[in-house]
Amino acid sequence: MSLSRRTLMAGTVAVGAAAGLRAAWSQGASGPYLLDPLPYPADRNEPHIDAQTMQLHHDRHHAAYVANLNAALKDAGEAAKLPLQDLLTRLGDLPETIRTAVRNNAGGHANHTMFWQIMGGSGGEPTGDLRAAIDRDLGGPARMMEEFNAAGARLFGSGWVFVTVEPTGKLALTSRPNQDTPLMGGLRVLFGNDVWEHAYYLKYNNRRPDYLKAWWNVVSWDRIAARYAAAKAGTLTI
User: Fold this and answer.
1) Is residue 169 in some structural domain?
2) Tens digits of per-residue pLDDT, 194-234?
3) CATH number reported for the structural domain that contains residue 67 in this entry
4) CA–CA distance, 233 with 80 (Å, rounded to integer)
5) Whether the bond into 83 is cis, omega within 30 of 0
């Protein structure tokens, strides 16, 4: 059962990828939104997240969101020129014919761009101002991780778990379905974890709680601390 599911997922990604997805990765997206390379080697998060998952997740899944977003916006005029965070807060201004496609794919692009940035680390615990904020608002690192993991485990179907940050530095834990993001409501994301099956199935199969627990070992608290400082300075985007 597990082997056939892994084979199905890998085959779906590798064989079913359209030419547009390959173009988005090999040439940069053919439109205003681009797919940045991973900020570290694909095996940087081993053994907790395997290199094959990282490559498929970034080079195919994330590339698909970028390609599909650009395709949806090809005739959208000024909307295609908006910074990604502004596009996500103005979904209601878009024509209804493209609104859902933009919502799904712009959300996927923003979520994954954040996701790569806050990994590649060695886990542990936060320090400094970030640690103080987590102690104050989320009950400390241990309690935050426990509640974050629980939120991810009970999220039905696909989605994300996030910690949001206000300009005052106040933190909150939340989750969203599919590729929705707190950015759609004008909030800023400090960090988040992807609980779509493609983020973990090759290694963890259906053991999402094991993936959630292991993920903390690859978090970069230094990068998250930099995002926290940017949020308080008003410069954090996605």
Assistant:
1) yes
2) 999 999 999 999 999 999 999 999 999 999 999 999 999 99
3) 1.10.287.990
4) 27
5) no
| Judgement on whether residues 104 and 145 belong to the same structural domain of the protein | no
Half-sphere exposure of 54 (CA within 13 A, CB side): 22
Task: Say if residues 63 and 25 touch (Cβ distance below 8 Å).
Answer: yes
What is the number of alpha carbons within 13 Å of residue 223 lying toward its C-beta?
Answer: 17
The answer to whether the CB of 67 falls within 8 A of the CB of 29 is yes
Candidates 119, 123, 124, 93; CA nearest to 106 is 93
What is the DSSP secondary-structure string of 131-197? HHHHHHHHSSHHHHHHHHHHHHHH--SSEEEEEEE-TT--EEEEEEETT--GGGGT-EEEEEEE-SG
Specify if 238 maps to a domain. no
pTM given for the model: 0.87
Q: In what order do the strands lie in the sheet with 188-194?
A: 171-177, 159-165, 188-194
Say how many Å lie between the first and final Cα of the chain, rounded.
38
Please indicate, yes or no, whether residues 141 and 228 belong to a single structural domain of this protein. Answer: yes
Domain encompassing residue 107? 2-40+49-117
